[in-house]
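FAQ: What does a ligand-bound record look like?

Like this one, built around protoporphyrin IX containing FE:
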Amino acid sequence: SIVWQLLYSLRNDRVPLVFYWIPWLGSAIPYGMQPYEFFAQCQQKYGDCFSFLLLGKVMTVYLGPKGHEFILNAKLNDVSAEEAYTHLTTPVFGKGVIYDCPNWKLMEQKKFAKVALTKDSFIKYVPIIREEVLNYVNSDSQFRGKKGKVNVLKSQPEITIFTASRTLLGEEVRSMLNTGFAKLYSDLDKGFTPINFVFPNLPLPSYKRRDEAHNIISNTYMKLINKRKQENDIQDRDLVDALMKNSTYKDGTAMTEREIANLLIGVLMGGQHTSASTSSWFLLHLGERPDLQEELYNEIKSVLGDRKEVTYEDLQNLPLVNNTIKETLRLHMPLHSIFRKVMNPLQVPDSKMIVPKGHYVLVSPGFAMTNEKYFPNANTFEPHRWDVSQNAGSSDSDTVDYGFGTITKGVSSPYLPFGGGRHRCIGEQFAYTQLGTILVTFIQTFKWTSKLPKVDYSSMVTLPEEPAEIEWERRAD
Ligand code: HEM
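The answer part, i.e. the structure of the complex:
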């Protein structure tokens, strides 16, 4: 392996390779434990573009906005997301959807799903989300009494699944979550970890439970689809209705009921860990900033007056609420790495270096988002850094001036928590609506304190390390 590395490093048409001692494993340990520190160290030695070995695969990283553009806007024929992700996602989501189909189908599936992710839907979702959050904080055992402690790694995933299921999948599915059905979600979730990425299929009980959970959940959603069909009960309530009304591809073939059920699993999973991580982090950061909690409280009060029931329209008029979410996503982009498999030799821009077919490219907007070069005092949580946005709303300008610096819009922006290009997230507005309603409801109900935990990079999304607790107290009014 050392001889191979030496020979490789002599080729001037290759991206510099980070040296490693252990074959196959390569740089898995430093990358897996502290990806951003690892990238920073590599950047010092090799510059913005370097390759490293990760469990037998060569990963080429290109840091910074040029890398965002290079990888996220690479041509469809040159890089593939499905080849990079399908081992992990297909056993969980199921066949025929997301990365278990040609890219053109995924593009259409995203359009089908977007119908349930519009302003008109969000107007309906906000009161439902608020009701779910209130039910949770008034009935969960961690929220009993006037004050107490809550583990956000338990509460936030639950609040996320309850609110997303009730809005996107409807009341029938939501009510099943009060039963043994919830255990199936947890079994499926346990099949969605970095280990499953490396070893998609092992003869282990957790893999068997993952597959069983997938089958039962997918069958349950199919039954729901069939029931609505038989009763001729297709309205505009949720994502199930939206997909039942509109899921015929341009070539005239219709998605099967099985595929619709699997798409429901995939879309819900896409929003689950990402949103749960984000709300965990904003609760933990705000716990260290009682001043911000008071400012948020006053902002909400000044817009809602004596009303408590926040609406979708109110959410658009609460800049500090939205900037708190925006700043949380800057510091804690849930996905620290985005991958593609290289399908054709890919030239690194402005260089002679070629990334060969069969290698992978890795883009990490989270690295730029926590970098001093783009965000002064990058490690400080400061929602107010987003206050001054000169031309944020103007669509004819390519840049936005935030006072602390000018940021490019589009894929070459340093700020890309939702990715960019053809695989960009479709859930951004839903996430802001869900997270905004959760944040407003918490601020109206509680004051809290916390000590910020370190980051755990070892799960699918960047989570706080345990103990991740807030000490809460109910507000008097
Ligand atoms: C794609 C982030 C919430 C559904 C993505 C990608 C990112 C991302 C970075 C691009 C992945 C890639 O290029 O490989 C986030 C964050 C969220 C969030 C930070 C919340 C804070 C949601 C929600 C949904 C959702 C709520 C569904 C309602 C999807 C889907 C894709 C996607 C369907 C497309 C995958 C593709 O085209 O390959 N998300 N997401 N996400 N997300 Fe989200």
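Follow-up question: can I read anything off the structure? Yes, for example: The chain has 19 helices and 14 strands.
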